[in-house]
Structure prediction request, 865 residues.
Amino acid sequence: MRLAVVKRDTKSKSMAVLIPLISFIVSLILGAIVLLASKSSPLQAYSAMLKGAFGNARRFQYTIVEAIPLLMCGLGVGIAFRLKFWNIGAEGQYVWGAIGITWVMQFWKFLPTFMLLPIGLVVGMLLGAAWAGIPGFLKAQWSVDETLTTLMLNYVAIGFAEYLYINAWKAPYGNMGTPEFPEEAWLTQVWGKVHSGLFIALALVVILWFLLYKTRWGFELNMIGKNPRAARYQGVSIKTNIVLAMLISGAICGLAGSMNTAAIAHRLTKGVDSGYGFTGIIIAWMAGLHPFASILVAIVIAALKTGAESLQIAMKLPESMGEVLQGLVLLPLLAGTIFIEHRLKIIKQEAQ
Amino acid sequence: MNQQTLLTPVVRMEHISKHFPGVLANDQVSLELYPGQVLALLGENGAGKSTLMNMLVGLYRPDSGSIYIRGELADIQSPQDSMALGIGMIHQEFMLVGNMTVAENIILGLRDLPFVPKLDEIKTKITELSQRYNLQVDPDAVIHDLSVGEQQRVEILKLVYRGAEILILDEPTAVLTPGESRDLNKIIKKMLNEGKSAIFITHKMDEVIEFSHKVQVLRRGKTVNICDTKEVTPRDLANMMVGRDILFSLDRCPFNPGGVKLKVEHVTVNNPLGSRPFLDDVSLEIHQGEILGIAGVAGNGQSQLTEVITGLLPCSAGKIYIDNKEMSHATPLQIIRAGVSHIPSDRGAMGTVGDMSVGENLSMKKYRTKEISQGGIIKRSFMRAFADKLIKTFVIKTPDQNTCVKFLSGGNIQKTVLAREIDSCGGLLIAVYPSRGLDVGATEAVRQNLISQRDKGNAILLVSEELEELQMVADKIAVMFEGRIMGIKDVKETNTEELGLLMAGTTTVRRDA
Prediction:
């Protein structure tokens, strides 16, 4: 007897809901095995994680705060992914957003203070867009492989940010980090720790959904992603749209960076490359590139992170255990998506 | 062939049914194939021929019914199972890896291959087999560099290498030149003499008569007739398939050309990889109300000609005018805006987006217009109404308009392209093999449609490999050979012999054996 994976004749809608659920249960079981092996009670551990993520208003706010940049990076890379353009440079674009707002806050002294925040956000967006536009242009003009260019540009951006907060823009006191932004220019908090960036992120979800599913441009992106030759034949310019989609993708990731910096750290410092851009890739995939589904996925991933942190505190488990559990949850979820379009078939020992 | 009925059939399919969402593709179909026999499977697009065969090779599983191979009940769950039973299929779209060699393609997927295959032994075996069946191909040639006919030979070799005894050929001659079809016929005859048998899916009546012993006609998933080939005429078969009389000649208005619609002047398109340009100093013009046919063996620059006109391929030298306006370097969108429609030769790779719905595919030209969108926003209700109208007019068989195009049969995918392009035609229609893969009924409708577009005053460039079609439909015929136009003839003043000579380039010798 052997097992084979075969394509389903039709896409299954019920499976699209059922499979993530089953995958989640599988990952809980896998996690339980690891926890038992390290002599901890899985039930206690899971309830600690749940409490850590949603247990009280403060923890819940913290989860939302984590989810905001994740959601935005997921939305950003999702646009490029629609064109089968593998933008794995969201991290770098996010960092440029953070650099952009810091530049405005620190050096554009000629601006009235109330203008610093909106202009800072916009400049962050533009820098993110420009950084993403480079690989977009290289791909459109000379077919340079985008997986390499976007990935490598991340490290350039991260390195440059490091140079800024350790050397060029360093605050006179302390050993790293730029001076703190003026308090009037911080992103306001709306509910506990949750800042008004939440509304920007949710507005983006609606705008993108409308753009992608309702407009002619969305229709064209869909065509390019699913059959670029057919799209070109129908008069859709692939080069222009690749550059355009990358500019928007980078702008959203850049905005995530500038927004989060204005809301949390209030300065450019270590930890600006905290992995939101990379995790955004997972979010875009798990949400099937759908903007609304990205909200839910971003919250789940954020909860995993916040939950794992309190697991360390509550259960005295090493920090790495939290990361192991996060990985164990993601793996079955990602692997499970294959079964939405495929099914498992049991093949009996060949007859005769 | 009477003694054959005494033998056990090699393939017996009994009361096979298969449902797809919204369609009953096969309804209680039974089929028998005897050793040494060729069975022609005939039917309109979407009649269920390919579905039935896909069940025999394990790509689909029947909902009910049973399959017996050499008298024994067989449970075919995968293509590997069917291969083990000696069944092999050549699909309409070849399943070859373009940048690998012939030998590599032939052994690809073989189960009992050692970790490091002994390529030399394999190549010797391939050479032996290719000599035995007259299938000349170089085992070291890369698939990319082979003609369509040669690629098909590789597909056949792949099957005989794996010891296939039952060959299923899905429209094998649709992509071949007349000479290549004759070769294929010889190859099949040779295999039959060795006791192999074959099932042949086709739309071409002449081939049924020429190739097969027995004909089985399917209509809407059911068998409507099984008979000996000797007892029927092409006309009988056509009527059985469609269930009504077919016109073999078409009504048309007298030729009354208007102004020049398209003018191509000394156009050359360089081939960056080859020594010979794709197009070499091509000049032609088409008037309103005129059909210019392009004849020639596939691969002699026809597709490049249509692509340079539609802006998909850059023009290296020369000039192209549409309505007396120079459009030599226009973008595809500018060409579309100038009212040019284009039915491309490859319906799957270029003509449609397989993962999008029938409705969306039908709207891919008009989505920019008020018929479907307003202010950049697509009106889904408009799109639905528009698509329903086209589905009805062009009799596209689909469960509904939300079905992905890739789930339709080949002929209905072609109809989707035709519907969209003919509907959006604004003066010039470029049609490349528009009736390829269509059954007689649909072919007739396409030809009638082209003629009525012409009668309405549209200019049409029709690329076809079938001289008969061109002679029936076109007003003038230009013959292409190695990227050049060998001559442009008035249909009434030329004949098949003259055109055939021009197609062969007159200076070269055919390589037929």
